[in-house]
Write a structure and sequence with these properties.
- The longest helix is centred in the first third of the chain and has 18 residues.
- With about 900 residues, the protein is α+β, with helices and mostly antiparallel strands.
- The chain has 8 domains: about 90 residues, membrane protein fhac (Ubiquitin-like (UB roll), Roll), CATH 3.10.20.310; about 80 residues, Ubiquitin-like (UB roll), CATH 3.10.20.310; about 80 residues, Ubiquitin-like (UB roll); about 70 residues, Ubiquitin-like (UB roll) (Roll), CATH 3.10.20; about 80 residues, membrane protein fhac (Ubiquitin-like (UB roll), Roll); about 80 residues, Roll (Ubiquitin-like (UB roll)), CATH 3.10.20; about 70 residues, membrane protein fhac (Ubiquitin-like (UB roll), Roll), CATH 3.10.20.310; about 270 residues, Beta Barrel (Porin), CATH 2.40.160.
- It is globular, with a radius of gyration of 37 Å.
- The strands form 9 sheets. A 16-stranded antiparallel beta sheet has the order 27-28-29-30-31-32-33-34-35-36-37-38-39-40-41-42, with no helix packed on it.
Length: about 900
């Protein structure tokens, strides 16, 4: 058997391969005898083999191999692809693939006093979890070198070492700072027309003689100096480092700072006390005086209108000499008016309700007359723009005011003019779908309004429709032809693409995650049409598992209308730990100054291990320790319940808690499944099975049959919960609603003593009245029946329920001990108005509130007249975890002489 062994190395070059034998029309009759795919010197997994669409027995084609190489490179998974061709009569192909590496960790040694986190943030060329390359490592070393110099560590010598794990295709990078020079500031000299005393400037700086020199700190100092100059009307001042003189022998540096004051801009506003800091930014750059005057006038008029001076006038002028530019704004405020409800006149096509709805005025328009008066003048342009979307390209809107007794009514007079309409819609080139199918996908309609931007949106809708039907490569051109004035024929010229099916689905990047874990989330299958919407849903579901930092899905085109679907994932961190510390008062807080109270530490800790067994399971341990409560919860979370796509939580816990009239210890177990309702992620339904054994170690009220101390009471319960979260965000909501309702049935199973039923419903609504002013209200209703132990009853009182009483103290009490006993019925209403306090402090708010409610020992005792009222006010400071709240509340129904304010300090919203 005649055999000549040779090896051809193809370092992927698209242009080299495109000029090979078949491109010249030369035929090759050889057949492929075998195909081998090698990754990291090992036989490739099946997913990688599937990237190579050539099999034993196929005709040998250099052009096909060229296309395969291009295809493999397009996946973005490989840094090198080589093809070895052996034999002349029958061809043996070996594809050698070199996977790209992922960067797992960036670490540092000898960081001086610098934060490793800041050092890592200074590196932009490398990112943990991203692709790794040696070239990027060198760039990262330069970035770190520049960061160190900016922080005051000059001429740093950095050693970089990489630890490559070829098995996992990952790499670690270690930056070791071997040495660096530091310099002390010897002197600071100001150059130029300094104007201000140097002692004042130097006093404002952190960079001072005798201290280490750090360019980053000097940059901050220069910004401080600019603010000093701006406060003296030098709005255009230029300050910068002019020169650094390093004394290497003594490790000292002398600094020269250049100061060019530029033109001094004096701003004068007469006729009204207008805040000048709103005008100063206009003149910080060199601008045309006329433009600056116009901008200043616009700001002043907007401000005056907001204050109710709707007809204010501003006369502006300036004069200049060699060093000073004086800008004058003379304000004629006129009368201040209250604004009545606006009126719209002259329109016939659009109704008032439609105008308000389309412009987003339905929620806050009634409050426009109080604080958003400036928008009245902007509404003219907004209404004209709205009419253009309905085809009225020449619509005009005029605003005038009708005055009456210190009050004005804004009137918008609308001249609609003629409407541009669509006489006919034509589709050309469509064979896969009927005209009726296509016209249902677009917003434009025959005899509907014509608006060119809507036509462009229609084209996008049609392109998406074709993609979602498994068709790729569709091109659509729109054309609007005038057949008579105001009448258009709308044409969509469609060049339909190819129907595409999914040949194979390839998975990469899942080093820990099981293949089956990914496959069960797929909403696409091999052999089916490549519905684009299904591919996007697959991506959403994989991201929803919470175990991947990135999910990429790429379509790799094959011949004959087929694609391979490549799903490339990046696995996220699997371990997470957190620790939180706080303080609490040992007794009732006596002062808002926290250290004036008897305080002790409280803390929480959390350990999480995710993606256990590569199945997207998660195990967490949460601990809480404080004076009044200790808790440990072990939780297991998984996305499926016996193969059914239901989020499932298994919890077991130990806890001990001190309440007002009792203390208890409890251990228990629960199983919870969660499912969205009607595929709406904002609406979920929960079912929970719970078993718990509770022991009272303290009881300050007489014992009942189920409240005996030291008697373990067992509860077996099933509950169903409905949660509908329509808030714009959970921690600091500004609009929307929240509804939760829980029905629980505790039944005497497994020798448990429990035999009661409870229902608890809460509804919250957040209504923005005007910008940054919000009204919120909460309604809570709880009902119970049966023999309910004290720790399962309803209680109220405290910062998160009724702020006219201390924690748990609202409702019935024991006549002897005067301790709260809880009840079987609860009604609570809470209403709160929050508003900003200072214009420059965005996160600080004031609030006033009204609470009404009570707890009743029995359902039969519920009476509206027995509800208790409380009022109060407080401060709110918003944080990412909810507002920090300082509040004072008064119980209006407290006995005479006991109506004292109760202080609360809390973080989080009123639940």
């Amino acid at each position: 058997m005649r055999r000549i062994l040779f090896t051809l190395l193809f370092i992927l070059s698209v242009f080299n391969f495109s000029l090979l034998v078949e491109a010249e029309g030369i035929e090759d009759s050889r057949m492929v005898k075998s195909v081998t795919v090698v990754v990291k010197d090992q036989p490739a997994l099946q997913d990688y083999k599937d990237l190579i669409p050539v099999e034993e027995g196929d005709p040998f084609s250099l052009y096909q191999i060229s296309e395969i190489i291009k295809q493999v490179y397009r996946t973005g998974l490989f840094s090198d692809v080589r093809v070895m061709i052996e034999d002349i009569s029958d061809v043996h192909l070996t594809f050698v693939l070199t996977k790209k590496l992922l960067l797992r960790n960036i670490e540092f040694e000898n960081t001086f006093d610098l934060s490793p986190r800041k050092m890592k943030d200074s590196i932009l060329s490398l990112d943990e979890g991203r692709l790794f390359s040696e070239r990027d490592v060198q760039k990262a070393a330069e970035e770190l070198h520049n960061f160190l110099a900016n922080a005051g560590y000059f001429k740093a010598k950095i050693h970089v070492s990489t630890d490559i794990d070829n098995t996992a295709s990952q790499s670690n990078v270690l930056f070791t700072v071997i040495s660096a020079n530091q310099y002390l500031v010897d002197s600071i000299v100001f150059k130029g027309d300094v104007v201000i005393e140097e002692t004042r400037l130097k006093k404002a700086m952190q960079t001072r003689p005798g201290k280490p020199y750090a360019p980053a700190v000097l940059d901050e100092d220069i910004e401080k100096l600019k603010e000093i100059y701006k406060s003296l009307d030098y709005q255009q001042v230029k300050i910068g480092l002019k020169k650094e003189e390093f004394d290497e022998e003594n490790s000292r540096v002398s600094l020269s700072i250049s100061v060019v004051p530029m033109t001094r801009v004096e701003l004068v506003v007469e006729g009204y006390n207008f805040p000048l800091n709103q005008l100063s930014p206009i003149w910080e750059a060199s601008v045309f005086e006329e433009w600056g005057l116009a901008e200043g006038e616009a700001k002043i008029l907007s401000y005056m209108r907001q204050k109710g001076f709707l007809f204010a006038q501003v006369d502006s002028s300036f004069d200049r000499n060699a060093t000073v530019l004086r800008v004058y704004h003379k304000v004629i405020p006129g009368n201040r008016y209250r604004v009545g409800d606006p009126e719209f006149r002259g329109m016939s096509y659009l109704s008032v309700d439609r105008i308000k709805k389309d412009l987003g005025l339905t929620e806050n328009f009634l409050f426009l007359n109080k604080t958003d008066k400036a928008r009245l003048f902007d509404l003219v342009a907004e209404i004209e723009s709205l009419y253009r979307t309905y085809g009225f390209s020449d619509a005009r809107v005029d605003l005038f005011f009708e005055r009456l007794d210190g009050k004005v009514k804004p009137v918008f007079n609308i001249e609609e003019e003629s409407q541009n309409r669509i006489a006919k819609i034509e589709f050309q080139g469509n064979s896969l779908f009927t005209r009726e199918d296509l016209i249902q996908q677009i917003r434009s309609s025959p005899d509907g309004p014509f608006y060119q931007p809507n036509v462009q949106k229609d084209r996008g809708l049609l392109e998406t429709y074709y993609l979602n039907k498994g068709i790729r490569g569709t091109q659509i051109v729109t054309q609007a032809e005038v057949i008579e004035e105001g009448s258009y024929v709308l044409r969509f010229q469609i060049q339909e693409g190819n129907i595409v099916t999914i040949d194979k689905i390839l998975l990469t990047g899942n080093d820990v995650t099981r293949k089956s874990t990914i496959l069960r989330e797929l909403t696409v299958k091999a052999g089916e049409l490549a519905f684009f919407s299904s591919i996007l849903e697959t991506k959403r579901k994989l991201e929803g598992l919470g175990i991947f930092s990135e999910v990429h899905i790429e379509e790799i085109p094959l011949s004959d209308g087929k694609i391979n679907l490549l799903i490339d994932v990046r696995e996220g961190q699997r371990n997470y730990a957190s620790l939180g510390l706080g303080v609490e008062t040992e007794e009732k807080a006596q002062s808002f100054v926290i250290w004036n109270n008897a305080i002790r530490l409280r803390g929480t800790g959390e350990l999480i291990r995710s993606n256990i067994f590569g199945a997207a399971h998660q195990l967490s341990l949460i601990g809480q320790l404080s004076l009044r409560e200790q808790r440990a919860v072990l939780s297991w979370e998984q996305p499926y319940f016996f193969g059914i796509p239901l989020e499932t939580y298994v919890n077991t816990w130990l806890e001990s808690e001190e309440r007002k009239s009792y203390g208890f210890t409890r251990r228990g177990f629960s199983l919870t499944t969660i499912s969205p309702i009607l595929k709406n992620p904002d609406m979920i339904f929960l079912v929970t099975l719970r078993y718990a054994r509770t022991k009272l170690f303290r009881l300050s009220i007489p014992e009942s049959s189920v409240d005996r101390q030291h008697f373990p009471y067992s509860t077996t319960a099933i509950s169903g919960s409905l949660i509908w979260d329509g808030r714009d965000e959970p921690f600091n909501p500004e609009r929307g609603h929240f509804l939760s309702s829980v029905i629980e049935w505790a039944y005497p199973l497994f020798n448990s003593e429990s035999d009661f039923q409870k229902i608890f419903t809460k509804y919250q609504h957040y209504v923005p009245l005007i910008p940054k002013v919000m009204l919120s209200y909460t309604t809570r209703l709880g009902l119970g029946r049966g023999v309910i132990p004290i720790y399962e009853r309803f209680f109220a009182g405290g910062s998160n329920s009724f702020r006219g009483e201390e924690f748990d103290e609202l409702g019935p009490t024991d006549p002897d001990s005067l301790q709260p006993i809880g009840g079987k019925a609860l009604i609570l209403f809470t209403m709160e108005l929050s508003f900003p306090l200072f214009p420059g402090v965005n996160d600080l708010y004031g609030a006033v509130f009204f609470d009404k409610g009570n707890v009743f020992a029995k359902r039969s005792l519920v009476r509206w007249k027995d509800l208790t009222d409380a009022v109060g006010f407080g401060l709110r400071y918003r944080t990412p975890f909810g507002p920090v709240r300082l509040e004072l509340g008064w119980n209006l129904d407290a006995p005479q002489g006991e109506k004292k304010p109760i202080a609360f300090i809390t973080i989080g919203n009123v639940f």
